[in-house]
Design brief:
Strand content: under 5%
Shape: globular
Distance between the termini: 43 Å
Number of helices: 8
Length: 244
C-alpha cells in the first residue's frame, strides 16, 4: 500500500479528477431518489452541507497553520514535523476535509453504486497516501513522530485537543484565501457541473434551458472570482509578513 500511496501522491492532482469524471460517465445520475422529489432535495442539501463542512475544516486547518502537502519533486516530503493547530487534533485534517468534499460530490451525483464505490475508492487511495507519508515521517522524525502518533488520531478529530493545540495562535483569513481558494473554486465548480450533468442526463436539454443557463452563469462567475484572486495573489495581496 505504501508503493501505491507514493504513486497516488505523485499523480493525484491529475488522477483524482480524472477518476471522478470516468465514474460519472459510467454511472449516470438518477432523476429522483426513490421517485421522491422531497427525498432528492434532502439528499442534495445533505451533499452540499457535507461539501461545505469539508471546506470549513480545510479553512480551519489552513487558517491556523499551513503546511506544504505537495511534497518535493512530486515525492512525499516534509521539512518539519507539524503538530500544532488542527494537526494537534488530527494527523491528517486536510485529507479529512478532502474526503468530505469527495463524499459530498458523490452523494450529490446520487447513483447508489457510485456513492458507495466512489467514497470507498477514495478512502482507500487516501489511506495508501497516508501510509506512504507515515513511512516517510517515521524515517525522518523517528521517536518525535511516534510520540505524536500516540497522542493524535490518524483520521478522527479529537476536538478536546483544539484549545491546547491552537493556544497562542491566531486565525489568518488572508492565508485561507491565498492558499485554499483553488480548492473552494474546484468544489463550487464540481457542484455546478454535477447539477448540469443531472439536468442534461434526465430530460431533453431544451426542457431545462433556463436552469442550465443559470448554472453556466454561476460557473462563469466562479471562474471570474478565481481569476481575480489568482491575480491578487500574484500581486502579493495575500503574502504573509515575515515574523520579526
Amino acid at each position: 500500500m505504501i508503493t501505491i500511496g507514493n504513486f497516488l501522491f505523485r499523480f493525484r492532482n491529475l488522477l483524482f479528477p480524472a477518476i471522478i469524471i470516468v465514474l460519472f460517465l459510467l454511472a449516470p445520475p438518477p432523476a429522483l431518489v426513490l421517485g421522491s422529489p422531497a427525498l432528492t432535495l434532502v439528499k442534495d442539501l445533505a451533499a452540499v452541507l457535507i461539501i461545505l463542512a469539508g471546506l470549513a475544516l480545510r479553512a480551519t486547518v489552513v487558517g491556523y497553520k499551513y503546511i506544504q502537502r505537495g511534497g518535493l519533486k512530486k515525492k512525499v516530503y516534509a521539512k518539519d514535523l507539524v503538530t500544532e493547530g488542527m494537526f494537534g487534533v488530527c494527523r491528517n485534517p486536510l485529507y479529512v476535509g478532502n474526503m468530505l468534499l469527495y463524499s459530498g460530490v458523490f452523494l450529490l451525483h446520487g447513483n447508489p453504486f457510485l456513492v458507495v464505490f466512489g467514497i470507498g475508492l477514495f478512502a482507500f487511495m487516501y489511506q495508501c497516501i497516508v501510509y506512504a507519508e507515515e513511512a516517510f515521517l517515521d524515517r525522518t522524525f523517528g521517536e518525535a513522530y511516534q510520540a505524536y502518533c500516540r497522542d493524535v488520531p490518524r483520521w478522527a478529530l479529537r476536538m478536546r485537543n483544539f484549545a491546547q493545540s491552537t493556544e497562542g495562535m491566531s486565525f489568518n483569513v488572508k492565508r485561507v484565501i491565498g492558499k485554499d481558494y483553488s480548492t473552494a473554486s474546484a468544489a463550487m465548480i464540481a457542484i455546478l457541473a454535477t447539477e448540469m450533468y443531472k439536468f442534461a442526463s434526465n430530460a431533453p436539454i431544451e426542457h431545462n434551458t433556463g436552469a442550465l443557463t443559470a448554472l453556466g452563469v454561476l460557473m462563469a462567475l466562479v471562474g471570474i472570482a478565481t481569476a481575480i484572486i489568482s491575480y491578487l495573489k500574484r500581486r502579493g495581496a495575500f503574502r504573509e509578513r515575515a515574523a520579526s
